TrEMBL record:
Gene3D superfamilies: Cobalamin-binding domain, Methionine synthase domain. Pfam families: B12-binding, B12-binding_2, HTH_17. PROSITE patterns: B12_BINDING. It comes from freshwater metagenome. Residues 154-279 form the B12-binding domain. GO terms for molecular function: cobalamin binding; DNA binding; metal ion binding. InterPro entries: Cbl-bd_cap (IPR003759), Cobalamin-bd (IPR006158), Cobalamin-bd_sf (IPR036724), DNA-bd_dom_put_sf (IPR009061), HTH_17 (IPR041657), Meth_synthase_dom (IPR036594), SinI_DNA-bd (IPR010093). This is Unannotated protein.
Amino acid sequence: MSNSDVSLHDVAEMLDVHYMTVYRYVRQGQLPATKVGRSWYVKPSDLELFRDAKAHSSEVSEGGKKIAPWAERLEAQLIQGDQRGAAEIMEAVLRSGHDLYFLYLQVLSPAMSAIGARWAAGNLEIFVEHRASNIAMRLIGQFGPRFARRGVSKGTVVLGSPADEMHTLSTSMVADLIRFEGWNVSDVGANMPAEAFAEAIRQGEDVVAVCIGVTMPGSLPAAQATIGAIRKVVPRDLPILVGGAGVPSDEVARKLGADRRSGSVHELIEVLGEVARRS
């Protein structure tokens, strides 16, 4: 903080708005601010940029949905370790008319990817990246259950990642999107031993498909072992689908023993839809 920084009360007077309006701008990531003790302060340069953005209507409407730099705002709050501020941004996204697909795929996922890239480039401490990931997981737990469909289920999809895969964020988002489309999801998480993964499927009820997420090429042998273990305990016609950055092609998927590779969440949902229509 420098002596020229402006308190939120002063910013409110300068913008001729209520203090809580300015506070909301800060919490939603629209106006960068630094917390010192129990007070927030804004750099004059950031205030000018904010005024200019407001004057030029940076938030526009497209098809009744507000368009704004949501991912960048969320990224800033996650880097600060501000879970409440991050949650308020995600609430604002939904209030602006967007759905869970947009929230996860166009806001949360890009924000986390940007944070990961910053860490990989040496521009963020690892504790910041880990803290942001933990906040993101808690946000998924907070927002995802709102979108679970009620009514008759299309069946159960068992979802997880093989041994040595430690990343759970992407599979958690995929699980919520599958639930959003009407399936039950048994999410066994990451780093799941092959035999345990297979046993989860064997004990499952009304299992219609298995989805295995692989984010790293180094996890391909474990994925192959997992699929082999699953094949021993399930009917041959139960589809096993793989996806993620670690599975770059259909050929790799076939070598693993999978039935299909899904290159995106939308493609996965389409494949599951085909399964539902055949059953």
